[in-house]
Amino acid sequence: MRELTCIVCPKGCRLKVDEENNWAVTGNSCPRGAEYGKAECTAPTRTVTSTVRIEGGSHRRIPVKTSAPIPKEAVFAAMALLDDVCLQAPVKAHTPVLQNVLGTGVDFITTREMDRAQE
Length: 119
Fold this sequence. Notes:
Layout: E1 2-5, E2 14-18, E3 24-26, H1 31-42, E4 45-46, E5 49-55, E6 61-66, E7 70-71, H2 75-81, E8 86-88, E9 96-98, E10 108-110
Parallel strand pairs: 5-8
Antiparallel strand pairs: 1-2, 2-3, 4-7, 5-6, 6-10, 9-10
């Protein structure tokens, strides 16, 4: 039996997942908690947030995130791909930065726009 705290909503239900009983979940107050508990124990995923360098912008870095969750075991490899990325301002929000990260079909996208720096 594995115990988790659900992160789907602010309630933070204390889940118990029984791997010997077809991943049965108890302690959830909604169906989304049951889905989360089973997924977290069988195929955990994470949304990755970070920043990348940007030249000519009003700031030196721009925030990015994955467009959907990726497998948890791929997080560090995905982050390493961002090390060599450098964008040029101006950039719109939701602009793809890296596409199909590690063959997952998920992109890194910008989460804000950034204009060129005023000279």
